[in-house]
Write a structure and sequence with these properties.
It contains seven helices and 13 strands. With 271 residues, it is α+β, with helices and mostly antiparallel strands. Helix 1 packs across helix 7, helix 4 crosses helix 7 and helix 6 crosses helix 7. The two termini are 27 Å apart. Bound molecules: zinc ion (ZN). The site of zinc ion has 7 residues, from loops.
Length: 271
């Protein structure tokens, strides 16, 4: 599933290509991908309008115009920019025409979603969840991070997966930042020392920045808007490496289930 870095890479490209261009037509090929309003209202409201900005909150992409179009890629969703001669991908559900270019949303497993409205109204109709601070929000200072997590009696993994506390992290980068911080993902957040939680936050920022610089991780089928793979998957130190040697101490990395998710860690480097 795309996490914050993959979504950030997509947003930066979309911002270059899609802002301040008139939306000339909208085709909704599968109505149930549109969570709010109806597919026909979604299309007719967008047609003729323009986006003035494109931003991201956690894993949600926000196209800002008279109303906000919200996109979540789910497990297998892609937003693709198509040149005039390019065919649409299989499982394409929505095509937004920007003159001769097209922005297409495809999603084989259909956990992704699109919605249109004011952000408050989308929260009210549950098309957009109540999200915590974005993991890269400068206002998520060390003090704020500590106050959010010091009294959480759930595991590091479960606490950081909760998008209502901090938005943007998922399985890959939580395993990676926990390794970098030297903390086991199964530890209870409130049982850690304050310094451990501070290291989790520093590691979170490092891991996310590095992954964005490497254009994200193409683990399953993540691709950017031009259908190119990221490079971060080659640099992951624990995720997907259960049974292999730790890059730091050479012991065998373990894999177990934490918070319902496959979790890989080093029992020597992480306490
Ligand atoms: Zn190790």
């Amino acid at each position: 599933m795309p996490e914050l870095p993959e979504v950030e890479v997509i947003v930066r490209e979309l911002r270059e290509m899609c802002c301040h261009r008139r939306i000339t037509a909208v085709e909704v090929l599968r109505d149930d991908v549109i969570r709010h309003p109806s597919a026909s209202t979604f299309a007719s409201t967008l047609e003729g309008s323009t986006w003035t900005g494109i931003s991201r909150h956690g894993k949600f992409i926000l196209f800002e115009g008279a109303e906000t179009m919200v996109v979540h890629l789910g497990m297998t969703g892609h937003l693709r920019l198509l040149r005039p001669s390019s065919p649409v991908a299989p499982h394409t559900h929505v095509v937004i025409h920007l003159g001769a270019d097209r922005l297409a949303f495809d999603d084989a497993r259909r956990f992704g979603r699109m919605a249109l409205g004011s952000q408050d109204s989308l929260v009210a109709v549950r098309a957009l969840p109540q999200l915590g601070a974005d993991a890269l929000d400068p206002e998520l200072t060390a003090e704020v991070f500590e106050s959010l997590f010091r009294n959480r009696h759930r595991s590091v993994k479960a606490s950081l997966l909760d998008q209502g506390i901090v938005a943007g992290l998922g399985n890959i980068y939580i395993d990676e930042l926990s390794f970098r911080a030297g903390v086991r993902p199964s530890r209870t957040m409130s049982s850690l020392r304050k310094a451990d939680r501070a290291r989790l936050r520093s590691a979170m920022l490092e891991v996310l920045d590095e992954a964005i610089a490497n254009r994200g991780s193409s683990i399953d089928d993540y691709r950017d808007v031009w259908n190119a793979k990221g490079k971060q998957q080659e640099r992951l130190r624990v995720y997907g490496r259960g049974g292999q040697h730790c890059t730091v101490c050479q012991s065998i990395l373990r894999k177990r289930t934490v918070a319902g998710r496959g979790t890989t860690y080093c029992s020597v480097c992480q306490k």
